[in-house]
């Protein structure tokens, strides 16, 4: 696809809110998963050290 401007790219043919919202949710969920994994790893490491 070819967009004439950055605004056209961001609008995604009228579906920009859905597209960028979906990307945002994926980033949020991945960040939450990484945080949860880090917390579980810390808990396991402290359990092993006891």
Topology:
Layout lengths: L5 H6 L4 H34 L1
Describe the structure.
It is a single chain. The protein has one domain (6-49). Helix content is 80%, strand content 0%. It has helices spanning 6-11, 16-49. It is rod-shaped and about 60 Å long. The chain starts with 5 loop residues before the first helix and ends with a helix. The mean pLDDT is 92.
Shape: rod-shaped
Compute the gyration radius: what is it? 19 Å
Overall SS class: mainly alpha
Q: How many beta-strand runs?
A: 0
Uncertain parts: none
Number of discrete domains: 1
Q: Give helix and strand order, one letter per element, not per position.
A: HH
Number of helices: 2
Beta content comes to under 5%
Helix content: over 70%
Terminal CA distance reads 58 Å
What would the average pLDDT be, to the nearest integer?
92
For the sheet with most strands, the description reads: none
Transmembrane segments: 15-37
Pfam families: CcmD (PF04995)
Protein name: Heme exporter protein D
Family: Belongs to the CcmD/CycX/HelD family.
Key features of this structure:
mainly alpha, 80% helix, rod-shaped, 50 residues
